[in-house]
Write a structure and sequence with these properties.
The protein has nine helices and ten strands. It is an alpha/beta fold and 276 residues long. α1 packs parallel to α3, α3 crosses α4 and α5 packs across α6. The N and C termini lie far apart (61 Å). The mean pLDDT is 91.
Length: 276
């Protein structure tokens, strides 16, 4: 089994080139340190004796690519994670968007979908769900299968309920799901206005015009050049006076587009301001 932290930078470059040429996934501008950590983790978990063995498997076994992409792109998520953020959406942002005839929301890097269902619940409780569209996207097809199913571990419901209540929720959280053995299946009505699909922030273009874009704790895995590219993608995808929500370690302050955005909340929510 490969020992951690012995994969060399030049070896990573070869692997990144292979993956791009063979499968079209471009990791060249991901944070090198983060990518290296995840490669080391994969080598340990999947018991590769050498980096060469990992590279050989990826090149010659397309079936393994699904597993590889899943490990590389997985993001830690939970429902109503950072309740103060969802409280800000509930009290400040979504009521503003409620004046529009249709609300388009993009959750970029939605992972297994917990955040998408959280937003759906917020919209339901504010009476805005029926005139909203939630686009939930991720590069990883495997996690999107979980999002479509809307099934999450039952043991997480206590934490999710606490998060929900801290975010301003007043209902009994269990009304939104059905418990079955060790799983909680969320109500299908929450998926009625949800569009779940693959999207690669690195290589894909804008596909709609949105009033709110949420991308939290994804950009920390990208280098500065790629972050800037993604910020421009978001800017091209966001209506004037629309909102962009980032993670706690992410900021527009040093971005080229930062001059046309105003931070409106300490939960990393930015408003696109009209230029005169």
């Amino acid at each position: 089994m490969l020992e951690p932290n012995i994969v060399k930078d030049e070896e990573l470059d070869y692997l990144i080139k292979d993956i791009h040429e063979l499968y079209g996934y471009d990791f060249s501008m991901y944070s090198k340190a983060s990518f290296k950590r995840r490669i080391n983790r994969i080598c340990v978990i999947d018991k590769f004796a050498s980096f060469a063995e990992l590279r050989y498997t990826i090149i010659n076994d397309p079936g393994y690519l699904k597993r590889f992409i899943e490990e590389i792109t997985v993001n830690v998520t939970e429902m109503f994670r950072d309740p103060e953020f969802f409280l800000a959406l509930r009290k400040k942002i979504l009521p503003q968007l409620g004046t529009y005839p249709l609300i388009r929301i993009w959750l970029a890097g939605c992972s297994t979908g917990e955040e998408a269902y959280s937003i759906a619940i917020l919209l339901k409780e504010l009476g805005l769900y029926d005139k909203s569209l939630i686009y939930a996207t991720d590069i990883n097809p495997s996690v999107l299968e979980n999002a479509r199913a809307g099934i999450f571990p039952l043991h997480q419901m206590k934490l999710y309920s606490e998060n929900y209540q801290a975010s301003g929720g007043k209902e009994d959280f269990s009304k939104y799901y059905t418990a079955n053995y060790d799983a909680a299946k969320f109500d299908n009505s929450l998926k009625k206005k949800m569009i779940i699909s693959t999207h690669n922030l690195v290589s894909d273009s804008s596909f709609n015009s949105f009033h709110l874009i949420i991308c939290r704790n994804v950009l920390i895995y990208f280098d500065r050049i790629l972050q800037e590219r993604v910020f421009k993608l978001f800017d091209n995808s966001l209506d004037n006076l629309g909102y962009l929500a980032l993670g706690t370690k992410e900021t527009l302050r040093f971005s080229d587009i930062g001059r046309i955005y105003q931070q409106v909340d300490d939960q990393r929510i930015w408003k696109k301001i009209e230029l005169s």
